[in-house]
Description:
The complex is a heterodimer of chains A (467) and B (95). With 467 residues, chain A is α/β, with parallel strands linked by helices. Chain A has helices at residues 17-28, 66-74, 142-152, 169-178, 196-201, 203-218, 276-280, 319-339, 349-369, 394-402, 408-415, 428-434, 452-466, and strands at residues 7-13, 33-36, 80-82, 85-92, 98-104, 109-120, 124-126, 139-141, 159-165, 182-188, 223-225, 227-233, 240-246, 252-261, 264-269, 271-273, 285-287, 293-295, 308-310, 385-387, 392-393.
Amino acid sequence: xxxxxxxxxxAVVGAGPAGLxxxxxxxxxxxxxxxxxxxxxxxxxxxxxxxxGFHATRPGALHHGYxxxxxxxxxxxxxxxxxxxxxxxxxxxxxxxxxVHCLKGxxxxxxxxxxxRLLIATGAHDRVLPFPGWxxxxxxxxxxxxALLKGNLVVAGRRVVVAGTxxxxxxxxxxxxAAGARVVGVFEAGGRFTLAPRALTRPGKAAEAxxxxxxxxxxxxxxxxxxxxxxxHGDGELTHVTVARVDAEWRPYQGGHETIRCDTLAVGYxxxxxxxxxxxxxxxxxxxxxxxxxxxxxxxxxxxxxGVYAAGETTGVGGADLAALEGEIAxxxxxxDxxxxxxxxxxxxxxxxxxxxxxxxxxxxxxxxxxxxDGWTSWLRDDTLIxxxxxxxxxxxxxxxxxxxxxxxxxxxxxxxxxxxxQGRICGEAVARLAGEAPGPPRRPIAQPVRxxxxxxxxxxxxxxxx
Amino acid sequence: MTGASPYRLVGARPEPGFEIRVDGRPVPVVPxxxxxxxxxxxGIRTWRTxxxxxxxxxxxxxxxxxxxxLVTVNGEENLRAxxxxxxxxxxxxxx
Lengths: 467, 95
Ligand code: FES
């Protein structure tokens, strides 16, 4: 085992709403807690903060629920916050607990953190679907455009189209518009986000979405359902997109096409939980309401691996409110388990459990309302890249299928999509869908690319320790 | 861009910036910004060409997932521009 650092009672990976809440609960209860995050500031994707160098006097202007973020951040107690730590592997340590292997700082030095228990709260990233021209500069993920804005105060472009599916497109469009971009349209491939049925289940959310409606109107941003960006065009950089009217399966209607001039397309088809670490730890992985892989947990957020907890989008995409609540529940369970008392005995357990169920039901309803429909494959042409890293066009994927590759794995071996730098994080789901499979859990030996030197250094340290 | 701006929105009073050099060109940075954000803000939206077809790439996912944004900083290769905080004097080269 690597013994280089202090041993913590709990290492939390990911400082978004779930990780912040969990770390705070555990630290305030007296546990020694390390909170690790790859970013330079806490908050995760949702509460991403601009650098201190901007001296923002209204940092909450870009966030819903900023006050809650401040409470979470200020409630961390004695938590050791380890920023700029990218966790690339976690191993069970000899004699119990875990060794969390990180690359530290922007310029990558290796470090190891030892902890008795682990909470994985690594969030999610945008799901994107390939379409002709999606690799032109100027096409970005919706979350990427948000990250540029929230984290760097840079507006992704001047004339922006927002497209994809799901209610997340709305805050992206409204914040870009508020920050000065001309948002020429929001195109939702599914039905427009209407609130009537859901307003009953979750009044707070309805108010939030109505707020977006007002903001869209104020900035004169058209919001259209049943429309998809089916192609992006430009000579070296994006100059316009083709928007098609699509049917319920997302197949374009004949003739319902419109060309829209823009320098930026922010596109997202929902989110994919980042499961590399839970998969690496051997935790059981199930599926969320939309059939997307997610860590399976009990009602105290324990995974199937002893000592490993998961919260937030890791357990299924559900948004910041649910993530923070799951973090709180996980933090309490860690404290209870560390003390050998039943987690269900906590005085707040019943109330939080009821609230969690309500939020989870709402999240599931959203996931079911905004699934990816099969018609997206009709947007592809033979020369459309499926894998951006290895530059594998759709034609080669079809060839592999014609050669008898019947599943995603065989397609990958024959045509090499998903074998490049990103290890299939971007195209994996599309390849699975093209193979007619449900997207599967990741099988990546490491969660971040590591230099061979760092691996060697770790091995040396490990064997020194063994000796 | 006139009128609305992200700075006005959050009431930012940025510290004096610094410059980095990207393939020899000076690019301004507000302290704390990533290399990728600084490039984007300077209107440079593409800085890498792909191995096979020489396709141009810049920021795509913006959060360290896609590896489209790779740069070399002070000789250190294959850093993700969207994650790497710019520092005074950085020499960024692209391929
Ligand atoms: S833009 Fe995707 S890794 Fe940097």
